[in-house]
Amino acid sequence: MKDCLKLITERRSITFFDPNREVPLELIKEILEVSATAPSGYNLQPWQVVVVIDKEKKKKLKEICYNQQKVEDASANVVIIANTRAGFDNVDRVLDSWIELGYIQSSAKEQLKETIQMGWSDPQKAKKKAVRDSALFAMNLMITARAYGLETHPMEGYDEVKLREFLELKEHQEPVMIIAIGYKDPNKTLLPRAYRFKFEEFGKVM
Ligand SMILES: Cc1cc2nc3c(=O)[nH]c(=O)nc-3n(C[C@H](O)[C@H](O)[C@H](O)COP(=O)(O)O)c2cc1C
After folding, report:
1. Domain 2-88+123-186 falls in which CATH fold?
2. 1 pLDDT above the threshold of 70
3. Is the beta carbon of 177 within 6 A of some atom in ligand 1?
4. pLDDT tens per residue across span 3-27
5. What is the DSSP secondary-structure string of the chain?
């Protein structure tokens, strides 16, 4: 419990990564699979990722991110993408697993599939669902990385048109954020954590 709280409260957006310390790709994949235990509506898991590790590609991505140096210095950058078609692309795989595990009878599948797909038919609603679930995955990723002794930095500062072009994204693939991952440069110190609003400022009870 205490360890979990530490992982959350001591997470920071690391501006200074050690450019000489690489994170093995296998470890990044492991972290991503742990992160994928995140909850999602109907378990549709609408997130997709592109892991950018190649040095030249990181340089190009840095330019797309308005020259944020951390993109080049981090060992990897995970671009998190929301699949706004997940209600159609993933539904069979998910419902078949529910049948296998006994959550539902196979006779209930088609009706449930129709209900789910109705919710994903409106493009605005589909985007909201896909981005919401992908953001939960992203937060899991930042906490899980810390559990493995790594640091992260989430970013929304990128030229979306250029990012789409760079990754050859399709229309139904919505970039959510980029998360840089790596080890902190031990020679640099971060400023203290900035002010966080108190419950009285962001909450109410009724
Ligand atoms: C979705 C998202 C996008 C962000 N984009 C950027 C960014 O492009 N560049 C940057 O320097 N920081 C970015 N940040 C980091 C925030 O500035 C940072 O989380 C905030 O100042 C609080 O600092 P802390 O994470 O160290 O507690 C982003 C954070 C989030 C959650």
Report:
1. NADH Oxidase (3.40.109)
2. no
3. yes
4. 899 999 999 999 999 999 999 999 9
5. -HHHHHHHHT--B-S-B-TT-PPPHHHHHHHHHHHTTS--GGG---EEEEEE--HHHHHHHHHHTTT-HHHHHSSEEEEEEEETTHHHHTHHHHHHHHHHHTSS-GGGHHHHHHHHHHHTTSHHHHHHHHHHHHHHHHHHHHHHHHHTT-EEEEE--S-HHHHHHHHT--TTEEEEEEEEEE-B-TT--PPPPPP---HHHH----
